[in-house]
C-alpha cells in the first residue's frame, strides 16, 4: 500500500527537504538580499560534492527523449557506518548503503513518487554476480550503486544524494525534537533501556536515530524499519515546513549548518537546482507525494547462505515502464 506523506509537496528526503527550506526562506518568509545570500552559501559551501557519480555512458540505459526527458530521478543513499570508519561522506567505498530510495519527479510536476528498495534485495550487481543491492556501494562506490539501480529500473538516474544516518540526529536536534506517531511499541536495541510506546511522542535526535535504525525488534526486520523511516521522514518534514521554522532566517541557517556535514551530492544538485525544483512543485500538497517499496516476494536464503529479500520479478516490467514512460499516475504500487 502506498505510504502517503501529508505535508506539502515534493520531499525527496534530505536533499529536497533543504530545497524547501531554502526556497521557502525566499518565498514564504520573504527573505531577500543578505539573508538569501547567506542561506544559499550555507548550503553550497558546506555540502560535500561527490567526485565521481555516474558509470560509463556505454553501460547506462539510453537517455530518455521528448517530454519524458524532463522527468527527474534522484537516487538517495544512506549509511549509518561512516562514523565508525571515520571516512568522508563523499568516499563510502567499502561501506554498505542502509537506505536506498529513488525519488521520481514527473515532467508535469503533478506528484512525487519515492520508492524504497530493501537493502537485502537480491539481484545482479554488474561485474559481481548475484548479491544484496547494498553491496554495490561497498564494491564500487556511488557509480556502481547508480549502475545497479539503473539496471533494475531500466532508466537513468539524474542526481544522487548520499546521507549519513547521523543526519537524522542532527536535523532532529536542530528542530528541537520531532513528534512521531508510532503504531507498534518496541524496545530499542540501540538505546539501552529505552522503549518506544504506541502513539504520539516527541523524540530527540538520538531517539530519532535509534527509531529509524531499529530492525532487531521486529519479526519482519527491515520491512518495518523501512516503514518507520518513512514515518519519521513524514514527521520531520512536517516540522521542517512549519511556520515557526520557515519564517525564521536564523533557524533556517542553523538547520542547514547542522545537516550539511552529513550530506554529499553530485555537482548538479546545488542551491540553484533545488530552488528551481521547489518553484516547479510549489502547488503540490501532501496527498500528491507517495512512498512505496520495490515489489518483493518474501524473504529467503541465497545459495551461499545469506538471508535475502526476493524481488518480485513478475512485477518489474510495469514498474520499469512507469519509470521509462513517466507514467506513475497509472502505476499501482
Structural class: alpha/beta
The rounded Rg comes to: 19 Å
- In total, how many beta strands? 16
Fourth-tier CATH superfamily name: LCP protein
Average pLDDT reading? 81
The domain tally reads 1
> How would you sum up the major sheet?
8 strands, mixed
Distance between the termini: 7 Å
Number of helices: 11
Named CATH topology: Aminopeptidase
Give the overall shape. Answer: globular
Architecture overview:
The protein has 333 residues and is an alpha/beta fold. The protein has one domain (3-327): Aminopeptidase, CATH 3.40.630.190. Helix content is 37%, strand content 22%. The strands form four sheets. An eight-stranded mixed β-sheet has the order 1-14-5-4-3-8-13-2, covered by helices on one side. The protein has a four-stranded mixed β-sheet with strand order 7-6-16-15, covered by helices on one side. α2 runs parallel beside α9 (249-259), α5 (166-174) packs antiparallel against α9 and α6 runs antiparallel to α7 (222-240). 44% of the residues are buried.
Question: What's the SSE blueprint?
Answer:
Blueprint: E1 3-4, H1 13-27, H2 33-46, E2 48-49, E3 72-79, H3 82-85, E4 99-105, E5 112-116, E6 121-125, E7 129-132, H4 135-153, E8 159-164, H5 166-174, E9 178-182, E10 186-187, E11 195-196, E12 199-203, H6 205-213, H7 222-240, H8 243-246, H9 249-259, E13 263-265, H10 271-280, E14 289-293, E15 296-301, E16 307-311, H11 316-325
Parallel strand pairs: 2-13, 3-8, 5-14, 6-16
Antiparallel strand pairs: 1-14, 3-4, 4-5, 6-7, 8-13, 9-12, 10-11, 15-16
Helix pairs in contact: 1-2, 1-10, 2-9, 5-6, 5-9, 6-7
Amino acid at each position: 500500500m502506498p505510504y502517503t506523506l501529508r505535508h506539502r509537496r515534493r520531499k525527496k528526503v534530505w536533499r529536497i527537504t533543504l530545497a524547501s527550506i531554502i526556497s521557502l526562506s525566499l518565498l514564504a518568509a520573504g527573505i531577500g538580499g543578505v539573508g538569501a545570500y547567506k542561506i544559499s552559501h550555507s548550503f553550497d559551501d558546506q555540502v560535500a560534492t561527490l567526485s565521481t557519480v555516474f558509470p560509463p555512458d556505454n553501460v547506462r540505459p539510453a537517455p530518455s527523449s521528448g517530454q519524458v526527458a524532463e522527468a527527474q530521478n534522484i537516487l538517495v543513499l544512506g549509511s549509518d557506518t561512516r562514523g565508525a570508519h571515520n571516512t568522508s561522506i563523499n568516499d563510502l567505498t567499502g561501506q554498505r548503503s542502509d537506505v536506498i530510495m529513488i525519488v521520481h519527479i514527473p515532467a508535469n510536476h503533478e506528484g512525487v513518487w519515492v520508492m524504497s528498495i530493501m537493502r537485502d534485495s537480491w539481484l545482479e550487481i554488474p561485474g559481481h554476480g548475484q548479491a544484496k543491492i547494498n553491496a554495490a556501494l561497498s564494491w564500487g562506490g556511488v557509480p556502481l550503486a547508480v549502475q545497479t539501480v539503473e539496471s533494475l529500473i531500466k532508466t537513468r538516474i539524474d542526481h544522487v544524494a548520499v546521507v549519513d544516518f547521523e543526519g537524522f540526529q542532527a536535523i532532529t536536534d536542530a528542530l528541537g525534537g520531532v513528534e512521531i506517531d508510532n503504531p507498534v511499541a518496541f524496545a530499542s536495541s540501540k538505546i539501552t533501556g529505552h522503549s518506544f510506546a504506541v502513539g504520539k511522542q516527541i523524540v530527540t535526535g538520538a531517539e530519532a536515530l535509534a527509531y529509524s535504525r531499529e530492525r532487531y525488534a521486529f519479526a519482519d526486520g527491515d520491512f518495518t524499519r523501512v516503514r518507520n523511516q518513512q514515518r519519521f521522514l513524514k514527521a520531520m518534514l512536517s516540522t521542517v515546513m512549519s511556520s515557526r521554522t520557515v519564517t525564521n532566517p536564523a533557524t533556517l541557517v542553523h538547520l542547514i549548518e547542522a545537516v550539511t556535514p552529513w550530506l554529499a551530492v553530485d555537482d548538479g544538485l546545488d542551491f540553484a537546482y533545488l530552488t528551481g525544483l521547489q518553484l516547479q512543485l510549489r502547488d503540490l500538497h501532501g496527498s500528491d507525494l507517495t512512498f512505496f517499496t520495490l515489489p518483493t516476494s518474501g524473504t529467503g536464503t541465497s545459495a551461499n547462505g545469506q538471508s535475502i529479500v526476493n524481488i518480485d520479478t513478475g512485477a518489474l516490467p510495469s514498474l520499469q515502464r512507469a519509470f521509462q514512460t513517466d507514467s506513475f499516475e497509472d502505476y499501482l504500487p
